[in-house]
Structure formats: C-alpha cells, structure tokens
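Researcher: Next entry in the queue.
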Amino acid sequence: MLQPVAEYFAGIGLVRMGLEPAEWHVIYANDYSEKKFEMYESFYPDSCGHYVVDDVSKLSLNKIPHTTRQIIKIRSITQNYST
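Model: Structure for this entry, 83 residues:
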C-alpha cells in the first residue's frame, strides 16, 4: 500500500528515488529553485501537479495536502565549482 508523503526542500528528487521502492508516494514537493524543479521534472513528469517552486516560509498551509508523513531534510548549502 502506497504511503502518501509531503517532501520539503525536494531538490531534484533524490530522496523520492529512495522512497518510491519502499512504497512511499510523494504527493507534494517543494523547493525554491526553478532549475532544481526542471531537473526534478525530467525524472518525474507528473511533478507539475505537486511540486511548488517557492520559499518554504511562504507556503500556504491550506494548499499543502494532508499527509501523516512529511519529510523535511536539512542540507548544507553547497556551491558548484567548475574549472
């Protein structure tokens, strides 16, 4: 049975990749970066219906689907370097 989950700071969907084999189903995802959303969408074409690009502090609670499980991950800020 699929377990619905909301994921904040979803990035490009790497956590979702790990959740799906365990029968967790992401029904809401959020990140502030349009570029991350574009990469997420390339992995998950269904993302337009549940991925919100916005600052997490600006999200409206009444627009977030109710789930019994919510994933909030903390990550360090990284900067990409190329040579």
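Model: The domain at 3-72 is CATH 3.40.50.150 (Rossmann fold).
Researcher: Noted, moving on.
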